[in-house]
Amino acid sequence: MKERLRPTDGVRPKKKLGQHFLTDERIAEKIADTLSLEGYRHVIEIGPGTGVLTKFLIQKPIELEAIDLDDESITYLQTKFIETHKPKNLSIRKADFLKLNLHEIFKGKPLAITGNFPYNISTQIVFKMLEHRDRVVEFTGMFQREVAERICEKPGSKAYGILSVLVQAYYEATYAFTVHPEVFNPPPKVQSGVIILRRKENNEVSCSEATLRHVVKSAFNQRRKTLRNSLKGLDISPGLKEDTIFDLRPEQLSVAAFIDLSTRIEHGAL
């Protein structure tokens, strides 16, 4: 039976790092089990903290690189895992994931990313993952619930936006489950949500990533306006401007429609 852990001596949650340590092993095990292990055997864990998720990850047939910026966490993890249990499939690295060169890790092999992500940089983590989608087969983990729902949202709602389109252009997105504040130390003021992103088999789009991102951001930065108004600053051919798609607001367009529109804009098509 999994136990509810007490706050760990010697590792203090730090507000500046956005740390909220998970204290419920049952939830940690559920997050570890979101990994399918299909097409990869190498995993990066971001922000292992006190190792509650790490404990379950190292039980899987993977090579795990746990990355944290907190000196106290690194020292604790080294003592708890490396010195005590000596797992052969775990490496611990002190680093800022956002500044890390992912090409240095696992020698270019396919990988997955997971973790209880610091909420203050979670969106930046997602964008970095997208930059390395050629290697990142799967991405799972915990976000602030609002962000998790936004990533997985479908067209037609207020939550559907930039993150929804850019992530779902390349990944199948699933909202897995909700996590309540009382299972963290300290408890956050919001609920959390766990998501699963699995890279699409056909994850190439017909336009450049730069064009897609520019079109999507321009559209949603003025989401109350129709595309005719929000995209008027883009170089769009006169014939294309007559398309009725420009009478729609951005939340009315599917991911496929955004890709098609971005392709037509990029190539000056009617």
Unreliable spans are 3-7
Question: What is the β-strand count?
Answer: 9
Tertiary shape: elongated
Q: Using only CA atoms, what is the Rg?
A: 20 Å
- In DSSP terms, counting alpha (H) and pi (I) runs of 4 or more, how many helices? 10
- Percentage of residues in helical conformation: 25-40%
In what order do the strands lie side by side in the largest sheet?
A: 4-3-2-5-6-9-7
Order of helices and strands: EHEHEHEEHEHHEEEHHHH
Spell out the blueprint of helices and strands.
Layout: E1 21-22, H1 25-32, E2 42-46, H2 54-57, E3 63-68, H3 71-83, E4 90-94, E5 111-115, H4 122-131, E6 136-144, H5 145-152, H6 162-168, E7 171-179, E8 184-185, E9 192-199, H7 209-220, H8 227-230, H9 238-241, H10 255-266
Parallel strand pairs: 2-3, 2-5, 3-4, 5-6
Antiparallel strand pairs: 1-8, 6-9, 7-9
Helix pairs in contact: 7-10
